[in-house]
Design a protein that fits this description.
By secondary structure, the protein is of the alpha+beta class. It folds into two domains: about 5-55 and about 60-70 and about 85-220, Jelly Rolls (Sandwich), CATH 2.60.120; about 245-340, Jelly Rolls (Sandwich), CATH 2.60.120. Helices cover about 15% and strands about 35% of the residues. The protein contains seven helices and 23 strands. The strands form six sheets. It has a six-stranded antiparallel β-sheet with strand order 1-21-18-23-16-15, with helices on one face. Strands 2-3-6-13-8-11 form a six-stranded antiparallel β-sheet, with no helix packed on it. The chain has a four-stranded antiparallel β-sheet with strand order 17-22-19-20.
Length: about 350
């Protein structure tokens, strides 16, 4: 049976640091009067599961689709198991995010209910002087961090990078980080919503209350730079033998691709497409397409009536196809993402 690309309905999340920038940037239909900080484009967590926007499966959830058609679409049985191995978001940080950390698999064993989270950020736009806080400076220990926390000078312990459009920042589990004010990103991550906030810049809400912090959990989860990193397990299962070369081969059929990151959980490439062009391609395994610029149609010639329209801000799941087609209307760019060799349980 042949399958066509599917597009999902965004799930909007109100955040104290959000704004309405995603409406300006991607014409997202944001709820009026809300500070939207996150748009979940492809997700399967207990409280949120993406719903297909249109086509023959309109209204069907990602979980329902995977349960019934996942193997035929090219996913392995393990990839079809809950939860789906990728969570794709857009983040709009009008104000700085908290200084936070996501636990690795070892830290999760200490905190019931916690889920490991590794992620990467692709910068879509940034105000002048905007920065990203990523990782500790060399030689920083837990004791250094505890002292800095008491003095509220945590910023001095962290590596600080200019936020520049087109940059990719990799944040493996255990990395202390914060997204600076005035930055919009695409986030690709493992399926987890576990965040331990260490510090929130002494911010208070309209009622004079600060947000909940998780100091002990965060301090226990951080990978400190004064100690060697723990060895990771290598019980990898998967999808394709070489995700990165497979993604590059697919991208070369669609346009011009650059590999951005290849980690055990996902592989990400940046694709540039030519204007007013129609190309055929083959997909040996499923790929997620995050559209950043340009527009057009993509589909399966065996189901031309279900060809999928794509515009900036859309996220599509492309199943395996023996002969797909893409028709672009102008120069475009997108991120191509596939599951890596390790599926998070």
């Amino acid at each position: 049976m042949s399958y066509s690309p599917v597009k999902f309905i965004p799930i909007f999340k109100e955040r104290i640091w959000g704004s309405d920038c995603l409406k300006t940037l991607f014409n997202k239909d944001l709820p009026a009067g809300k500070r939207i900080g996150e748009s979940w484009e492809l997700a399967e967590l207990p409280a949120n599961c993406s719903i297909i926007a249109d086509g023959p499966w309109a209204g069907v959830t990602l979980r329902q689709m995977l349960n019934k058609h996942g193997r035929d679409m090219g996913f392995t049985q393990r990839q079809c198991d809950c939860p789906f191995g990728l969570l794709i978001k857009f983040l709009d940080a009008d104000d700085v995010l908290s200084v936070q950390v996501h636990p690795d698999e070892k830290a999760c064993q200490m905190f019931p209910g916690a889920q490991m989270k590794t992620e990467c950020w692709y910068v879509l736009q940034a105000r002048p002087e905007a920065v990203i806080y990523r990782g500790l400076k060399p030689g920083i220990s837990r004791e250094h961090l505890e002292k800095a926390l008491k003095k509220a000078n945590l910023e001095q312990m962290m590596q600080i990078y200019p936020a520049q459009k087109g940059d990719l920042h990799f944040l493996p589990a255990g990395t202390l980080h914060a997204l600076g004010a005035g930055v919009v990103i695409a986030e690709i991550q493992t399926p987890s919503d576990t965040t331990f906030r260490l510090y929130d810049w002494n911010r208070i809400d309209e009622h004079g209350r600060g947000r909940e912090l998780h100091v002990e959990q965060a301090l226990a989860s951080i990978h400190y730079t004064d100690t060697p990193p723990a060895e990771e397990s290598h019980d990898e299962v998967n999808v394709v033998d070489d995700s990165s070369s497979g993604l590059l081969s697919i991208g070369a059929l669609l346009g011009r691709i650059n590999l951005l990151i290849d980690c055990p959980y996902f592989c990400v490439g940046h694709l540039s497409t030519a204007p007013a062009e129609k190309r055929q391609f083959e997909l040996a395994f499923p790929v997620v397409m995050i559209v950043l610029a340009g527009g057009g149609m993509i589909g399966n010639p065996r189901q031309p009536q279900f060809a999928c329209r794509f515009d900036p801000g859309d996220t599509l799941l492309l199943p395996t196809m023996e002969r797909g087609f893409i028709a672009t209307e102008q120069s475009g760019e997108c991120l191509l993402v596939c599951l890596g060799p390790k599926k998070v349980p």
